[in-house]
Amino acid sequence: MKLKKLFALALSGVMTLALLTGCGDKPGDKPEDTLRAEALADIINVQRGVNITCEADPQLSEAAEKYTQVSSGEGSTPLINGLRVTFVSNGSQARKALLDTIGIAPGTTNKQVIFYNGADRGSDDPVKQAIDLCNDYRQVLPEPDENTWHKPGFLASSYRVGFGRWKDENGNPRLFVIMVGDIPGRS
Question: What is the Cα gyration radius of the chain?
Fold first, then answer.
């Protein structure tokens, strides 16, 4: 119980810092995606005890939006739903389609690709959106197995991030982020 209270206190501190980060800047100096990326990094750092940075990448956001339209055939549900619900086995169609959409070969060893998603609660607040995004994690690359698909293991210290929205198989609005990082020491 004390751990939950400590975590809640730490998370509220991160949220406060994320809000104050923009103080002193004129409103509109930072794009919404930049604010979301900074808040996402702050929240992940507190939740996972890591020290990463996230930078919004408009091209990755564009690819993320394209990915929401990829399906296995006409009239079928978007493949993005396959990343959200269960273990993504090696070579799965949803995983491969994501990597193809963002232009990374499935066997690439020097990149880490992470998929975060959460409910879209309709907030325009970048910090609240970042909190919603931290609800569900999937490692896409390196290839996960039944023991690692749901465990956050950050192999890079800096990530480019692309944001997107879609409606899941039940019609519920969802937010997601695709994170791409270079793994040091691998080529």
Answer: 16
